[in-house]
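pinned: reference chain
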Amino acid sequence: MRRSWRRQELRLPRKGHGGVRDGRVGGLLGQSAIMMATANGVDTQPVLRGAWVLENLLGMPTPEPPKDVPALTPDTRGTTTPRELLKAHTKNSSCAVCHRRIDPIGFVLENYDPVGRWRETWPKSGAKIDPAGVLPDGTRVEDVVAFKRWIVGNIDQFSGCLAEKLMTYATGRVPNYAERKQIATIVQANHTSGNGFRDLILALIASETFRTR
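pinned: its structure tokens
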């Protein structure tokens, strides 16, 4: 039976679910493995998490940082939270352009500690975690649950990213411009027919890009 992205991939809670299962857990954004892979084992790394989500879930990879900008060189004395630390760092205009896209997504995941456990405060300062931020399209989200809902509301962006990565893996190369347009057409058709994961894979296999790889 066909399942939609809305339930299968993001697993948003049904109305009435409370406690810890109110949307904090489940789905890709709640997986401990992903939270651990985007931390260093001791501390979370909002920039790494934000960049990972942009590239691997939303299809919006960020460029490499400028070679002449060392990490965290601005004066950060007096900072007590990762948000304050990065705010001081991104006073550098050459850093700020990318960080405006990366940091809000990284901070929306800050309630997950380095191994994916839920927390309400930053461990070193005891300050309450503020996960709110403004996404690249201008949408303000208050927490990870709101971010999950935003992804569901923009599911074609996730589907397009997934489809392109599947095709890259299947063909062993990055799709060219014409092939990306073909993938976008497949994603749109799949959306119209219910966003089935199996249907998406079958459509990719049947595509000219895959058959002439």
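why pinned: The chain is about 50% helix and 0% strand. The beta strands are 133-134, 140-141.
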